[in-house]
Amino acid sequence: MTDRTMLITGASTGIGAATARLLAEKGWRVALAARSTEKLSDLVSEIGPEKARAIACDVTDEASVASAVAQAAAFGPLHAVFANAGLGATVPGSENGETGNWRAMIDTNVWGLCLTVKHALPHLHETRGHMLLTGSQAGRTHMKGSVYGATKWFVHGYAQNLRLEMNEWGGRCTVIAPGMVDTPFFDEPKPGALTAEDVARAVVHALEQPARVNTGEVFLTPIME
Questions:
Q1: 225 lies in a domain?
Q2: What CATH number corresponds to the domain at position 37?
Q3: pLDDT (tens digit per residue) in 57-91
Q4: Stretch (H or E) spanning 6
Q5: How many domains does the chain divide into?
Q6: Terminus-to-terminus CA distance in the chain, angstroms?
Q7: Are strands 172-178 and 52-56 parallel, antiparallel or unpaired?
Q8: How many CB atoms lie within 10 A of CB 78?
Q9: 158 catalytic per annotation
Q10: Whole-angstrom Cα distance, residue 57 to residue 71?
Q11: 8 A C-beta contact, residue 83 and residue 116
Q12: CA quadruple 2, 3, 9, 13: dihedral, nearest 10
């Protein structure tokens, strides 16, 4: 896995940052994309500039995504892309939900995902690379009135369609679908939940399968005590 580059969106904290650290340990270069460039700069300093590069990116803006992908590819040929940027609900349910939050979730979790895939695919096509998408347990179960859950159902469905497209040229597509993860995604700590490092190891598991094997989904949940 040395001399390969992965672009990670939503890389400034949580799952994205943990994945960047673990991949860098395994010899990957990591192109780190997020809106928070200050946090990205700190992460690059931690990993080392020869292994990591910070890229300012708003996944809801197509020009920003196109630029981020191009910058990542200039850092090194893209063998993997982790479309990890995501946004959660501020208020649960539909009747009391905040429409501005719904729009932001759809723009990030659906539209931003599609933009990332579209602009990354030509590079992955060249390397027969691997696209990874952050799904969720919320995209495999039903939750009362959850618009967030619906965006993750989209991720899971789109990933299966994308897998069929990428199979035609030897590419791979994996949904990383965790249950609750204790990250800054939540306002308060979540004792007993998965850690970001747990999810990062799931990403590496999918990447390390033989080239002939596509792991369509890695579904991981905490064992609550």
A1: no
A2: 3.40.50.720
A3: 999 999 999 999 999 999 999 999 999 999 999 99
A4: strand 5-9
A5: 1
A6: 36
A7: unpaired
A8: 26
A9: no
A10: 11
A11: yes
A12: 50
Supply the range of the domain harboring residue 88.
Answer: 5-220
| Global pTM value | 0.94
Q: How confident is the model at residue 2 (pLDDT cuts 50, 70, 90)?
A: low
Q: Phi and psi at residue 66, in whole multiples of 5°? A: -60, -40
Catalytic annotation, pick one of 82, 148, 153, 158: 148
In a domain, 38, yes or no: yes
Q: Identity (one letter) of the amino acid at 209?
A: Q
Helix or strand (DSSP H, E) at 218: strand 217-220
Q: In whole angstroms, what is the distance from residue 161 CA to residue 175 CA?
A: 12
Please report, for residues 79, 90, 121, 175, the alpha-carbon distance to residue 128 in angstroms, rounded to integers and kept in the order given: 7, 38, 10, 17
Those residues whose C-beta lies under 8 Å from the C-beta of residue 203, and which sit 6 or more positions away, are 19, 22, 23, 82, 132, 176, 218
DSSP letter for 93, please.
Answer: S
